[in-house]
Amino acid sequence: MALNLTVGILAHAQRYSPDRLSYYGEQFAAVNTALQEHGLPEHQEPDEIEAWSVEMFGHSGLPTLLRIAAHLWAGSGVPEPAKRGVAGVPETGSDPALLAYYDDVQKWLRDGAPRCRMAYEHLILHSDDRGYYLPARFPQVIFTPPSLNVAGTMIGSAPVLMDECRQLLGALAVPPDLDLQGDELREAVSSPGRGEGWHRYGIEIESCLNLLAACQRSLDTGAAVVFTSG
User: What is the DSSP string of 158-187?
Assistant: First the structure.
């Protein structure tokens, strides 16, 4: 199953899936309720723009990027590339840094500990297959109550996610002019863990650059970044 990032979901639905218009209308109404509860301005999703979409590296690519972010949060530096398991799928679910990150989150969710901003939270504290990033800057990820039925539960900020992705690219020493569609990155994606330097992290870098492109499109158009599976 593919994982897509779409910017301009209402415009996309009007053209390709009109039966989904009411669903997304309800979703953005729920998102705005959550924004109001946090004292933030409402989001007005445009419906007359050219929709933009990109397919990610399945559902296994994004977790490899989260893993690197968690290791940087833990102060252990950039880890070795994720080991490959069955059918070459990266093994990230038992990564100690990610588990420690989520454990810290569970402490304040479960115990009512003070909510503090965590490094890379807009990347890590977000569903990897559903949900929204809005073209507005707010420091902490918004956790929505189950009653609102917001897809993915957590709402992120596109400009803050951009900041986090740029930090990750810097940590990986990625050349600033690396072409997302170029042969050099394509080769790194097809041979993860091989080569030297950033070339060992092709899947992570492709995921990061796709997120950056989606966030930039979001800021340019005022539309949310929407995670969809299909």
Answer: HHHHHHHHHHHHHHTT--TT--TTSHHHHH
For residue 13, give the DSSP letter: H
- The three-class DSSP label of residue 95 is coil
Strand partners, 84: 90
Q: Are strands 131-134 and 225-229 parallel, antiparallel or unpaired?
A: antiparallel
Helices (H), 112-147: 121-124
Would you kindly state where each structural domain of the chain is located, as residue ranges? 3-229
Cα–Cα distance for residue pair 151/227, rounded to 1 Å: 9
Q: How do beta strands 52-55 and 131-134 pair?
A: unpaired
DSSP class of residue 82? P
Q: Is the pTM of this model over 0.85?
A: yes
Q: Could you tell me the strand order of the sheet in which 3-7 lies?
A: 52-55, 3-7, 225-229, 131-134, 154-157, 142-143
Residue type, 9: I
Q: What is the DSSP letter of 144?
A: P
Predicted confidence pLDDT, tens digits, the chain (230 residues):
678 999 999 999 999 889 999 999 999 999 999 999 999 999 999 999 999 999 988 777 899 999 999 999 999 999 999 876 655 556 666 889 999 999 988 887 777 666 777 899 999 999 888 999 999 999 999 999 999 999 999 999 999 999 999 999 999 999 999 999 999 999 999 998 899 999 999 999 999 999 999 999 999 999 999 998 76
Asked if 203 and 67 touch (Cβ cutoff 8 Å), the reply is: no
Q: Which residue has the tokens 């707010």?
A: 138
